[in-house]
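Students often ask why we bother encoding 3D structure as a string. The short answer is that it lets us treat folding as translation between two languages. Here is a chain of 162 residues written in the first language.
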Amino acid sequence: MVGTNTAQAMLVDEQEKLEHESDEPEDCNPEYAAEKEKPEVDRHNQEMGSKGEEAAVQYLNRKGFDIRDRNWRCQAGEVDIVAEDEEALVFIEVKTRACCERGFPEEAVDAKKRKRYEKIAGYYLKYNHVDDKNIRFDVISILVVAPERAFLRHHKNAFLAC
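And here it is in the second language, the structure alphabet:
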């Protein structure tokens, strides 16, 4: 399929990168990132982000996705949602905003975040012994327009457009 990577190819690429990184732990422990101190996050933004992720999961369930993991962590960072559809194993970043002053939510997924997501995916594949699957990176963008209303856009293969 155009725009997807196979898990095997991604594992090989990430394994080669990991062999050159001596400052990170060798194995992927999902609790590793939780052990690191994180700066205090504004409570309102955190709550809005959690609600956005829950809305994204509900949307994905309605579309027939199988949710495999939520907020999966390793030393490279965290992936919001790992899901599977009939085409691929999908790593999904959810971005929620209440206004467009700083741009649309999906615009926050820059090259640095894409690179980090690819690294996280490599750890996920290794840790979960996944191979011979198509891999895709999606972004779900949520713009809150009222207390109980939001505009949701699902950007499939979002990393290809960049």
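Translate back mentally: The beta strands are 5-6, 66-74, 77-84, 89-97, 134-146, 149-155. Keep this in mind for the problem set.
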